Amino acid sequence: MRGGTVAKPGAAPRRDEAERTLKAERGGAAAAAKLDRLIHERVRLGILSALAANDTFAELKGLLKTSDGNLSVHARKLEAAQYVAVVKSFQDRVPRTEYRLTAQGRRALERYLDHLEALIRAARG
Questions:
Q1: Partners of residue 90 on adjacent β-strands
Q2: 3-state secondary structure 48-109
């Protein structure tokens, strides 16, 4: 009994229970909001993941199934953040672009993955 009333079965939870639930949900939303938005985008996460597994990569476009322009835009954003290094050269008169994950990029990806794992653990309780 609370405040002179009896909670009925199937009724909404008491105010203090509802507040605890809301705080827990807000905490999860706040934690999700702290994800590195630069990395969180699908193509950029794909670029960093591929580079983490391969050190350098010249064929990201095919692996990620994206266009040259789309890959270029996302790679430039990662390059501006110093997460990847880009080397442009020619091989048999054909332009070649090679991407490499930097130490800073590797640390950022590891932080991002740790954050995701923590969110998953929290969601599973």
A1: 95
A2: HHHHHHHCEECCHHHHHCCCHHHHHHHHHHHHHCCCEEEEEEEECCEEEEEEEECHHHHHHH
pLDDT in tens, the chain (125 residues): 444 444 444 444 444 443 343 345 445 556 666 788 899 999 999 999 999 998 667 788 888 998 989 999 999 999 999 999 999 899 899 888 889 999 999 999 999 999 999 888 888 87
Token pair for 101: 């994950």
Output the pTM of the full model: 0.69
Of the candidates 59, 109, 111, 65, the one whose C-alpha atom is nearest the C-alpha of residue 84 is 109
Question: Is residue 111 classed as helix, strand or coil in its secondary structure?
Answer: helix
The answer to whether 42 and 66 are in contact (CB under 8 A) is no
